[in-house]
Amino acid sequence: MKIIDGKALAAKLQEELRVRVEGMAVKPALMVILVGDNSASQVYVRNKARAAERIGIKSETLFLPESTSEAELLNLIDKYNADEQWHGILVQLPLPAQIDEDKVLLAIDPNKDVDGFHPMNMGRLWTGQPVMVPSTPAGVMEMFKAYDISLEGKQAVVLGRSNIVGKPMAQLMMDQNATVTLCHSRTQGLKAICQKADIIVSAIGQAEFVKADFVKEGAVVIDVGMNRNAEGKLCGDVAFDEVAEKASLITPVPGGVGPMTITMLMKQTVTACERLTAGFDNERVDK
Ligand SMILES: Nc1nc(=O)c2c([nH]1)NC[C@@H]1CN(c3ccc(C(=O)N[C@@H](CCC(=O)O)C(=O)O)cc3)C=[N+]21
């Protein structure tokens, strides 16, 4: 068994980004909007701000109160859409109940949508014309590349069908010629499906869900889970110690997919800046 070191790979890619940004006349700028005081979100946005600083990306985090109305948030998004000094706009999820997430994601200019969550960017991904790709699945694809894991003709299983992880993950692996089974909470015979997989990507949000008897000898296991165990410690979806004995490659939590997510977000901010300053526009057919 070998551990996929997401932290080390993220550091290497961030250094490459730093060099790329050094050569840019217009420096990329990312606006992060956080509504409310979700404690996990606070940690994530702090990590994003740190990564941005290391790379030379300008970033600002706007902390809005839990009581912020949908109209107030939509107004702010309009303002940053129109403001040329910002190349990326990210609204941290989840949002408080009074705000309709779908409306917010639709309001962000697709050219500035560094999360890749706008329906236009989702649609582009599903039709084979990716521009902005959700960062978590993009980060997992970078791990496959860095560790020479070929997806060609492989049986891949994705656990979880969310718009931000499961669905785009399945699409990206399909693009690399994997045969993908997308499983979810209503899947019958889930364990037997996992046992046939060459690659398992778990994004269901339940600690210790993927146990050793789910995993074929030599399989690659990617853990996207971000859960807290009884002691409040961060842990993934995979029972790491027992699964590690069977897997050929496995990601830890923390230090696996999380740092890659942040790195891909930075990469897309750089791309957004390059595209916007070159005058590209998603609404047109150019890529
Ligand atoms: N609009 C939006 N975009 C997102 O990309 C987004 C979001 N909303 N909402 C929440 C999820 C979650 N997410 C993570 C980012 C970094 C780590 C991360 O840095 N993890 C570290 C440790 C973090 C810790 O110590 O808690 C690691 O796994 O090693 C984790 C999770 C981004 N998300």
Automatic annotation (TrEMBL):
Keywords: Amino-acid biosynthesis, Histidine biosynthesis, Hydrolase, Methionine biosynthesis, Multifunctional enzyme, NADP, One-carbon metabolism, Oxidoreductase, Purine biosynthesis. GO terms for molecular function: methenyltetrahydrofolate cyclohydrolase activity; methylenetetrahydrofolate dehydrogenase (NADP+) activity. Residues 4-115 form the Tetrahydrofolate dehydrogenase/cyclohydrolase catalytic domain. Its EC number is 1.5.1.5, 3.5.4.9. CDD domains: NAD_bind_m-THF_DH_Cyclohyd. It holds the Pfam family THF_DHG_CYH. GO terms for biological process: L-histidine biosynthetic process; methionine biosynthetic process; purine nucleotide biosynthetic process; tetrahydrofolate interconversion. Residues 134-275 form the Tetrahydrofolate dehydrogenase/cyclohydrolase NAD(P)-binding domain. It catalyses: (6R)-5,10-methenyltetrahydrofolate + H2O = (6R)-10-formyltetrahydrofolate + H(+); (6R)-5,10-methylene-5,6,7,8-tetrahydrofolate + NADP(+) = (6R)-5,10-methenyltetrahydrofolate + NADPH. NADP(+) binds at residues 160-162. Pathway: One-carbon metabolism; tetrahydrofolate interconversion. SUPFAM superfamilies: Aminoacid dehydrogenase-like, N-terminal domain, NAD(P)-binding Rossmann-fold domains. GO terms for cellular component: cytosol. InterPro entries: Aminoacid_DH-like_N_sf, NAD(P)-bd_dom_sf, THF_DH/CycHdrlase, THF_DH/CycHdrlase_cat_dom, THF_DH/CycHdrlase_CS, THF_DH/CycHdrlase_NAD-bd_dom. Homodimer. PANTHER family: C-1-TETRAHYDROFOLATE SYNTHASE, CYTOPLASMIC, C-1-TETRAHYDROFOLATE SYNTHASE, CYTOPLASMIC-RELATED. HAMAP family: THF_DHG_CYH (MF_01576). Belongs to the tetrahydrofolate dehydrogenase/cyclohydrolase family. Catalyzes the oxidation of 5,10-methylenetetrahydrofolate to 5,10-methenyltetrahydrofolate and then the hydrolysis of 5,10-methenyltetrahydrofolate to 10-formyltetrahydrofolate. This is Bifunctional protein FolD. It comes from Lactococcus termiticola.
